[in-house]
């Protein structure tokens, strides 16, 4: 039992350090400033598949950006849609700097979206590439804030993404959980350890994208067009990775409408975790998974009469809940809207089994994405 107590203590210390690192990183973030980057030509790449319900909303949002039309282009890339998304986008565009392309082949394997992004980049003119998703809505000042983050030392910028506000407990829980992921990524970037970001709101220098060979080494994976690239730029070049801590840079996307879609999405995100190049990072993720698993194990041991584990369980819950609450509150100060404390409590309870289940499912299961059945 002493060995188990020591293991739980080590896991607790590691997770506490991880959360503290995120919180310190968030406090280091600052809003973008004017830095003379108006000379850059920007290419906004938007891959899409079966988005007939969203594609026109995306067009109106992108075409309404407060950015000089002659200084950027928008390239939509159709990833072999089976609905009328392509036709809607082609007929719905109204600006001369917007084009709609169709991926000229059905990509083999799992990296379909990545092939669409690569095709868009191959046909782009910009020296800075910005990618977002076709189900997203953008503030009119979104693009100018993202570009302001670039200076001569910066090659990759990640931005905040949030779910559109919807009523109902399920939507509110998703919103808070998703913002927790975004804040974790933002804090780690602020702390100088880029790990996660969201492809609905990222930008990078095209020349550096080519320098690190872009997405070529992970085309066999369905996810990771954002994180793998960010990690490579951070580890293989001398350029900086930044996070755009600005409310007007928040990109809004829709939450899942049912538990099945939510679970499938999270499985897809989790499926790439063991393919990170940094083995130390994989070890950290395993330790975090063991920390969450340990909360279950300690509970069962206490129920079985081993009350000595009550102390480690209580400390584990305190070290988990308090910093995570402070992280959420810091996120509200930076760029997210205020959340109900009751939703935070419910999310904290559900997060433990959710993390364990999705981690296993992502590593060993298959999932559905945009009408495709994909094996890990």
Secondary-structure element string: HEHEHEHEEHEEHEHHEEHHHHEE
Query: Which CATH class of the largest domain applies here?
Result: Alpha Beta
Average of pLDDT = 89
Count, helices: 12
Q: Sheet with the most strands?
A: 7 strands, mixed
Distance from N terminus to C terminus (CA atoms, Å) equals: 37 Å
Assign the CATH topology of the largest domain.
Answer: Spore Coat Polysaccharide Biosynthesis Protein SpsA, Chain A
Shape: globular
- Counting DSSP E segments of at least 2 residues, the number of strands comes to 12
Helix coverage percent: 40-55%
Overview of the structural elements:
The chain has 376 residues and is of the alpha/beta class. It folds into two domains: 2-24 and 278-370, no CATH class; 30-262, Spore Coat Polysaccharide Biosynthesis Protein SpsA, Chain A, CATH 3.90.550. 50% of the residues lie in helices and 14% in strands. It contains twelve helices and twelve strands. The protein has helices at residues 2-28, 55-63, 85-92, 112-122, 142-148, 169-190, 206-211, 227-236, 259-270, 279-303, 309-334, 341-364; strands spanning 42-48, 72-78, 98-102, 128-131, 136-138, 154-158, 161-163, 202-205, 240-243, 251-253, 366-369, 372-375. It has a seven-stranded mixed sheet, sandwiched between helices. Strands 5-10-7 form a three-stranded mixed sheet. Helix 9 (259-270) packs across helix 12. It is globular, with a radius of gyration of 21 Å. The model has no long low-confidence stretch (mean pLDDT 89).
């Amino acid at each position: 039992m002493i060995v188990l107590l020591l293991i739980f203590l080590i896991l607790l210390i590691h997770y506490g350090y991880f959360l503290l690192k995120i919180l310190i990183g968030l406090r280091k973030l600052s809003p973008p400033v004017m830095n003379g980057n108006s000379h850059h030509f920007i290419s906004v790449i938007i891959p899409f598949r079966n988005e007939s319900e969203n594609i026109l909303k995306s067009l109106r949002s992108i075409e309404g950006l407060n950015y000089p039309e002659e200084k950027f282009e928008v390239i939509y890339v159709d990833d072999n849609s089976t609905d009328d998304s392509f036709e809607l986008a082609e007929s719905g565009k109204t600006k001369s700097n917007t084009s709609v392309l169709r991926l000229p082949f059905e990509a083999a394997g799992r990296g379909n979206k990545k092939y669409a992004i690569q095709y868009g980049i191959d046909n782009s003119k910009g020296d800075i590439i910005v990618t977002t998703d076709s189900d997203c809505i953008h503030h009119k000042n979104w693009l100018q804030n993202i570009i302001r983050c670039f200076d001569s030392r910066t090659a990759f910028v990640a931005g905040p993404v949030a779910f559109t506000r919807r009523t109902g407990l399920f939507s509110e829980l998703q919103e808070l959980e998703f913002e927790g992921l975004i804040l974790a990524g933002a804090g780690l970037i602020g702390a100088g350890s880029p790990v996660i970001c969201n492809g609905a709101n990222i930008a990078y220098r095209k020349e550096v994208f080519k320098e690190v060979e872009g997405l070529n080494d992970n085309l066999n994976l369905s996810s990771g067009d954002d994180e793998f690239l960010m990690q490579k730029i951070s580890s293989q070049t001398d350029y900086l990775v930044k996070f755009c801590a600005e409310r007007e840079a928040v990109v809004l996307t829709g939450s899942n409408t049912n538990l099945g879609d939510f679970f499938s999405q999270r499985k897809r995100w989790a499926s790439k975790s063991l393919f990170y190049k940094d083995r130390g990072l994989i070890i950290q993720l395993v330790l975090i998974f063991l920390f969450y698993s340990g909360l279950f194990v300690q509970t069962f041991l206490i129920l079985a009469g081993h009350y000595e584990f009550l102390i480690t369980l209580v400390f584990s819950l305190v070290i988990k809940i308090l910093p995570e609450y402070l992280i959420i509150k810091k996120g509200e100060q930076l760029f997210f809207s205020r959340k109900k404390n009751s939703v935070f409590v419910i999310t904290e309870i559900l997060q433990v089994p959710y993390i364990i289940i999705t981690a296993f499912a992502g590593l060993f299961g298959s999932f559905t994405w945009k009408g495709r059945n994909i094996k890990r």
